[in-house]
Amino acid sequence: MSSVPPIQFSPPARSSRPPAPPPQAQPEQLALTIDGQAITVDAGSTILDACRANGVDTPTLCYLENLTPVNACRVCVVEVAGARVLAPACSRKVEAGMAVQTDTDRVRLARKVVLELLGSSVDLSTAPQAPAYFERYGADPERFGPSAEPAKAGERDGHEAGHHHPATGGPSAATVGQPVKIDNELYVRDYSKCILCYKCVEACGVDAQNTFAIAVAGRGFDARISTEWNVGLPDSACVYCGNCIGVCPTGALMFRSEHEMRAAGTWDESAQTVTDTICPYCGVGCTLSLHVQDNAIVKVTSPLDSSVTEGHLCVKGRFGFAFVQERAPGPADPTVPPGSRRGG
Q1: Rounded CA gap, 189 and 298, in Å?
Q2: pLDDT of amino acid 341
Q3: Which residues are CB-neighbours of 145 under 8 A, at least 6 positions away?
Q4: Ranges assigned E (strand) in the chain
Q5: Separation of alpha carbons 111 and 98, rounded Å
Q6: Which of 6, 31, 104, 254 has a C-alpha 20 to 30 A away from that of 139?
Q7: pLDDT digit string, tens, across residues 122-178
Q8: Crossing angle, helix 105-121 and helix 130-137, to 10 degrees?
């Protein structure tokens, strides 16, 4: 008689239920007050997380859920009891017993001045949140005087850090105005709309793409986003994933199709529909949000809450949509980037 255990021939029946995940410790709860209201939040939350979880509207420009906070714009500052300076809500972690005020005179004045400084030096015409913020805080950028003449092409890129540049003409508000950079067929860079939020740098770097094609160059008012040695995008390390476009809050980085339609006066977001689908190019399964106007795809984004993309895409998913139109657009058709046109 064989001495082999019967289990070798008759394995036990499998459980009809999948194994339960290992138990996870519940996060510690911290008690604090926001505008006098007592609340509790998970340890590790930021003040902004706590505000949003409890319905306290706190303005932001440089913050995005899928990027590391860099506290650049300072629009979200709040007052913390016992603190000498205002704290950026987007990055300051909550502490037990913390007392936060989000709408004091000091907070409102700080936000107002920040918005006025931005509005006097940067074109915020395509920043969707800016008008409401200006009205909410009574910001008046024009109090700094008329805007200075925009720089010539390449002039700001040629400024060297640490060198002073004498003012010319009468008193005026210095701006970052400059010509739009159009050096490829997929997207444009209009740095006259750049508020130096660093979102594009973060998305191009460790937070998403790890390409590091762009960084901040210069210092002070001459600080700007630049490629290595200020070369054009086609000569840089850029892989045209477009993730910088997806996180830009002001329209400084924009689909070339959108840029051309805005210039022609045909861009109309109220007439656009947004449909989610799955990218057909590979098996990863990225969610695409197709923005359609006049039966043509004019832009592609991805939802921030997608567990696959977290809002980020590759060049194919973001720009490779011209084949869907099943036509060969001519040079005058602004609805499709020229580099994506069939036969183009």
Answers
A1: 18
A2: 45
A3: 171, 172, 173
A4: 29-34, 37-42, 77-80, 87-88, 99-101, 187-189, 214-217, 224-227, 253-255, 273-278, 287-293, 296-301
A5: 21
A6: 254
A7: 999 999 999 999 999 999 999 988 888 888 888 888 766 655 556 566 667 888 999
A8: 130
The matching CATH number, chosen from 3.40.50.360, 3.30.70.20, 1.10.260.40, 3.50.50.60, for 174-340 is 3.30.70.20
* pLDDT mean across residues, the chain: 88
The length of the chain is: 344
Distance CA 85, CA 68 (A): 22
Report pTM: 0.81
Burial of 339 (0-12, 13-18, 19+ CB in 10 A): middle
DSSP 104: -
Residue 21: count other Cβ atoms within 10 Å of its Cβ: 6
Question: Can you give the pLDDT at residue 147?
Answer: 85
- CA distances 122 to 21, 33, 62, 119, 193, Å, are 51, 36, 14, 5, 5
